[in-house]
Design brief:
heterotrimer; A alpha/beta (about 425); B alpha+beta (about 525); C alpha+beta (about 160); B: about 525 residues; alpha+beta; Ubiquitin-like (UB roll); Rossmann fold; 7-stranded mixed sheet; 5-stranded mixed sheet; 16 helices; about 25% helix; about 20% strand; elongated; C: about 160 residues; Arc Repressor Mutant, subunit A; Glutaredoxin; 2 domains; 4-stranded mixed sheet; about 10% strand
């Protein structure tokens, strides 16, 4: 499998500019600002097929293309380093071990839309990562890779590191922008969209850490090489974070289209202690869980997961073995979403907490016959009716757990206790 | 304004570019339910009640934030839309307290109304409801109930965008979200009670009105606020012949959707206290009650014999009353100085959003009718104090109560040879009179006020005056008859038609043309 | 009388922070972090002070502070122990770790030890799922915990 995103992380002192440059770093940026027009750059990234790696999978080149070129307003690029999706820790690895790839990618994206101010919004809890990035930014500035007239091209770019303060919703692009503007992390009603009315009402592109870190390699090796990897609709490589009941947890770089079952059993070493697999969430806690009998034929790409009734999302793979109480698992995730709901719109604000309360009651042995169908109904009432996708993210796993493990939930209610050993 | 055609529920609607679906629908008479939307505030989009189905769009869209495009096809009553509305209602109700029996909003509560219209399903919520602060005093006039609040943020946005005072914010996250003041601050800006008007539920309620009367018992009369010469349009709401509260009426040319706190509560000072219910006349021992004939005869005789005359009309008297007063006083004596009460004060920035710097709602109308002297009211007050007059007819104002000048005016009034005072209560000024005539207050009047900007607006009587008191116009009419005037009027409407014939600026007007939104005169700006 | 204000040093840092941003209000979070660092926690007085320096209404800053978990309106212990409780850590035994800490320090979640040394919180996913169970103490992550190792870590903290 191709090593694009993880090509630097194992090198000693990988997060220093010296190590990065010795492995070819910042050559892509030089090429971009010296030889490419923004239009050509956007075309190249469109041709690569790169899709947003934060969870939505929107084609990156197309997103850049939505920014009005002739707008008199300043334009902004924001690197979304607010990684908070449960089960996901791939951005953290890049931040701590290959910050320069992120910086270089951020500047490339800024050049594409002719932005001169880029922000890296990093979740507040990643204090160490923030220190690494801050130092890397200073190194890059000292080397002349950011600041005024980089590479003598006439292009100016400032990169500002901005720390969040503990809110998952700030990973949603407009929630991030509200937070960056100095307010609560409240997502904004759309339209208008960030491409035309983003940060401070100006054209803005928000890209995930992994998306941006992919750019230097694509520029150096060419879009065609990137597009040669993966499947028809899912090009290139993707980082998957693997955790839970698995022998070899960690971050894996996978060619899109790789067989999922093989990945779990071979590359990740399978379920430890001879236990049987009971369920796996493929894309972070927002995404519907898959039962073992559903895994055949699934490949690790956007289309295949979607066809299987779930989504690739952030690629946060959470593995659960037979000792897992699915009722507890479902409650745990519903509690996460209840805690993180920003509270603006009525279906999410009230619905997420309602679902958590019912799950909690069921888990504690106080479930009633109608509870499961009630959760399914509430979940359906939240889906599609909210200001931002958080509502969907909360609704999907709630419904999926019940649908996929109905018998276990029914028994848990009937017996008023967990019939599997608790987590 | 570019025309745009859209289709709502199969009906073709003509609208214009830049309008949202909810606006276009409202203008076409199609009501889409909403909570957080307000025509005068920015779009929040958080209640989700206005979701509609739009052809070619996979998800339902909030109609308050969807701009119309040519040929857009909207469904406001499809099964998906109705289901979404029931869903939103359910979400808003699960933590809502069962306060209806003790909540002032009952009867005008949007949760109640929309439940009846769009929901009617039984509760499925079987958990412990979230609890929040109740009965929290936000300010002198506003009390907050956090459990009733649906977090629509209308109050927060009003205070950010209209008064720019930013007292309220949303604190916390998720279903701990609630509305709060900064610790130690209070909500007391001059327009604060508007947040009560715009709160769709009983989360923000009026302390003055609290527990007074159920709203379905209120008689609602469209009228004009008597507070100042802005002339905010109000709904005067009364019960058992007493005024219970003012609510603003929408008039984009005057007050938009708003009302100031001082005007809103002005009815207390103007209508409370013991009423005069019989004319009085001064005899040896002091003032004694008498009948109307005696009083009116004494008034006419006394004024006629004691020129030069001063006539002061209240800024709260109508155009119809002012018209007759001017005619009466000029008929009685050619040496008459008339003015409408007018005093100015400083306004704060927030007050300037709505208020005028006076407390004379109809000063302009009165002057249009001829109740005007060179130099204005202050000059006239000076002449009174200087002893220029022997007789005076003072209507509806307690001049002794004037800050600063009160004592000097009292001395001057005591020196008058003849004083007629017409008012609703036995004020200190009235106690000095030779004849006291019981009259009506603004809530009992039918007539018109002309606001500072020249808009003629209609007052309607909401209260029946006490037995024994007469309408001011009726008193002037009877005095005119005794002064030899032939014309007689049976109603305020007739007087208005008469003044419309005589005062060129009011030519051609009648109550029909004034309607409930008023009529703007061609505008020569008048000096106060 | 509001006695809370930045030191000379912090004022310089405040100016430096604000000058980085195209719009002053965007510097809200870093300025709040600065204030929290200097004053220990964000009391209403501190919030009012920050609001004045940022030229925004106090109520607005109040709303911001209450929204984020890392901004504290009350003082917390010298070491803020934040144990992750979200699914991957739960699968790895986070509850046992939390229980071990509660037993050792004799406090529950959301509480502070009497000597003001430790505050314990149960928090959501910290992006460390591959090395679960784990916790964050102030700025530092402690990963691959066991009931044993967590005790040792707490003993080493001053």
């Amino acid at each position: 499998m191709e090593k694009i995103l993880l090509r630097n992380v194992d090198a000693p002192d990988s997060n220093t500019i010296g190590a990065y440059r010795s492995r070819g770093g910042y050559r892509a940026l030089e090429k971009v600002v010296s030889e490419m027009s923004p239009e050509r750059l956007i075309d190249e990234i469109k041709a690569s097929g790169l899709r947003g790696r934060g969870g939505a999978g929107f084609p990156t080149g197309m997103k850049w293309g939505f920014v009005p070129k002739d707008s008199p307003k300043p334009k902004y690029v924001v690197c979304n380093a607010d990684e908070s999706e449960p089960g996901t820790f791939k951005d953290r690895l890049l931040i701590e071990k290959d910050p320069h790839a992120i910086i270089e990618g951020t500047i490339i994206a800024a050049y594409a839309i002719q932005s001169h101010t880029a922000f890296i919004y990093i979740r507040g809890e990643l204090s160490y990562g923030a220190k690494v990035l801050e130092r890397a930014i200073e190194e890059a500035a000292a080397a002349g890779f950011l600041g005024k007239n980089i590479f003598g091209s006439g292009y100016d770019i400032d990169v500002i590191l901005h720390r969040g303060a503990g809110a998952y919703i700030c990973g949603e692009e407009t929630g991030l922008l509200s937070s960056l503007e100095g307010g609560k992390g409240w997502p904004k009603v759309k339209p208008p969209f960030p491409a035309t009315h983003g940060l401070f009402g100006c054209p803005t592109v928000v890209n995930n850490v992994e998306t941006l870190a992919s750019l230097p390699w694509i520029i150096e090796q060419g879009a065609a090489r990137y597009a040669a990897i993966g499947t028809e609709k899912s090009k290139g490589t993707k980082l998957f974070s693997v955790s839970g009941h698995i022998n070899k947890p960690g971050v894996y770089e996978v060619d899109m289209g790789y067989p999922f079952k093989k990945f779990l059993e071979e590359d990740c070493g399978g379920v430890p202690n001879g236990k049987k697999l009971k369920g796996v969430i493929p894309g972070g806690a927002s995404m519907p869980v898959l039962r073992p009998d559903e895994l055949d034929g699934i490949t690790m790409d956007y289309e295949s997961f979607q066809a299987a009734g779930t989504l690739l999302g952030s690629g946060g793979v959470i593995v659960m073995d037979e000792s897992t109480c699915m009722v507890q698992a479902a409650w745990n995730i519903s509690r996460f979403f209840a805690h993180e709901s920003c509270g603006q719109c009525s279906p999410c604000r009230e619905g997420c907490h309602w679902m958590e309360k019912i799950f909690r009651r069921v888990e504690h042995g106080e479930g009633k016959a109608g509870d499961l169908d009630l959760i399914l109904s509430v979940s359906g009432n939240i889906m599609g009716n909210t200001i931002c996708p958080f509502g969907d993210a909360a609704a999907m796993p709630a419904a999926a757990f019940i649908r996929k493990y109905r018998a276990e939930f029914d028994e848990h209610i009937a017996r008023k206790k967990c019939t599997v050993s608790p987590i | 304004m570019d025309p745009v055609k859209i289709i709502i529920d199969g009906k073709e609607i003509a609208t214009t570019k830049g309008k949202t679906v909810i606006q276009a629908a409202a203008e076409a008479g199609i009501a889409i339910p909403y909570y957080c939307y307000h025509p005068k505030l920015t779009i929040a989009g958080n209640c989700r009640m206005c979701l509609v189905e739009i052809e070619k769009m996979p998800k339902l869209q909030i109609s308050c934030n969807t701009l119309v495009t040519e040929g857009m096809a909207v469904k406001t009553e499809s099964p998906k839309v109705l289901e979404a509305r029931r869903a939103v209602m359910e979400f808003l109700l699960i933590n809502h307290p069962l306060d209806c029996p003790i909540c002032d909003q009952a009867g005008e509560c949007w949760l109640q109304d929309y439940y009846m219209e769009h929901d009617l399903s039984a509760s499925r919520f079987d958990e412990r409801k979230e609890h929040e602060r109740k009965r929290e005093i936000f300010g002198p006039y506003v009390v907050f109930d956090g459990e009733r609040c649906i977090k629509c943020t209308r109050c927060v946005r009003f205070l950010q965008e209209v008064t720019h005072t930013d007292e309220l914010t949303v604190v916390n996250r998720g279903d701990d979200s609630t509305i709060a003041l900064f610790p130690g601050e209070i909500l007391d800006n001059p327009l604060s009670v508007n947040v009560v008007d715009i709160c769709p539920v009983g989360a923000l309620t009026d302390r003055d009105f609290r527990f007074k009367v159920r709203v379905w018992y209120l008689r609602k009369t469209p009228s004009i606020c008597p507070g100042c010469s802005t002339g905010c349009n109000i709904s005067l709401e009364s019960y058992q012949n007493r005024i219970a509260r003012f609510k603003p009426r929408v008039n984009e040319a005057v007050n938009s959707h708003w009302l100031c706190d001082e005007g809103r509560y002005s009815f207390h000072a103007l209508t409370e206290g013991e009423r005069l219910t019989t004319p009085m006349i001064r005899q040896e021992g002091g003032l004694v009650t008498t009948d109307w004939d005696t009083a009116l005869e004494a008034a006419i005789a006394g004024l006629g014999a004691n020129g030069p005359l001063l006539g002061v009309l209240s800024g709260r008297n109508t155009n119809e009353e002012a018209f007759l007063f001017a005619r009466l006083m000029k008929k009685i004596s050619s040496q008459t100085a008339l003015e409408v009460f007018y005093r100015e004060r400083e306004l704060t920035e927030v007050e300037k959003v709505l208020k005028s710097p006076d407390r004379s709602p109809n000063f302009r109308g009165a002057r249009d009718m001829g109740v005007h002297a060179n130099g204005g009211f202050d000059s006239l007050a000076g002449r009174l104090v200087a002893g220029n007059f022997r007789g005076a007819y003072i209507v509806g104002e307690d001049l002794i109560d004037l800050p600063g000048d009160g004592e000097k005016i009292q001395t001057a009034l005591e020196k008058l040879s003849f004083l007629v005072v017409q008012d609703t209560r036995l004020t200190p000024t009235a106690k000095l009179a030779h004849v006291v005539l019981p009259a009506t207050h603004f809530g009992e009047k039918e007539g018109t006020y002309t606001n500072r900007r020249g808009r003629v607006q209609k007052l309607n009587a909401a209260i029946v005056p006490p037995l024994g008191a007469l309408q001011d116009w009726e008193i002037f009419s009877r005095l005119l008859a005794r002064a030899g005037e032939k014309a007689a009027y049976a109603t305020a409407a007739e007087i208005f038609l008469a003044l419309a014939r005589e005062i060129p600026a009011y030519g051609g007007l009648n109550y029909g043309k004034i309607g409930d939104q008023g009529f703007q005169l061609g505008n020569e700006t008048q000096q106060p | 009388m509001n006695e809370v204000k930045f030191s000379e040093e912090s004022l310089k840092r405040f100016e430096a922070i604000v000058s980085r941003y195209p719009k002053k209000e965007a510097a809200m979070l870093p300025v709040l972090y600065l204030a929290q660092e200097e004053f220990g926690y964000l009391s209403p007085e501190a919030i009012e002070y920050v609001a004045a320096k940022m030229e925004v209404p106090a109520a607005r800053v109040y709303g911001v502070v209450t929204f984020y978990t890392m901004l504290n309106m009350k003082p917390i212990g010298r070491h803020h122990i934040q144990v992750c409780r979200t699914l991957p850590c739960a699968l790895a035994g986070a509850e046992r770790i939390a229980a071990a800490i509660k037993v050792k320090l004799r406090i529950g979640a959301g509480e502070t030890t009497a000597d003001g040394k430790f505050t314990l919180s149960e928090v959501e996913c910290l992006a460390s799922c591959g090395t679960a169970p784990m916790m964050q103490v102030n700025d530092d992550y402690y990963e691959n915990l066991s009931a044993q190792s967590v005790g040792e870590i707490l003993d080493r903290l001053k």
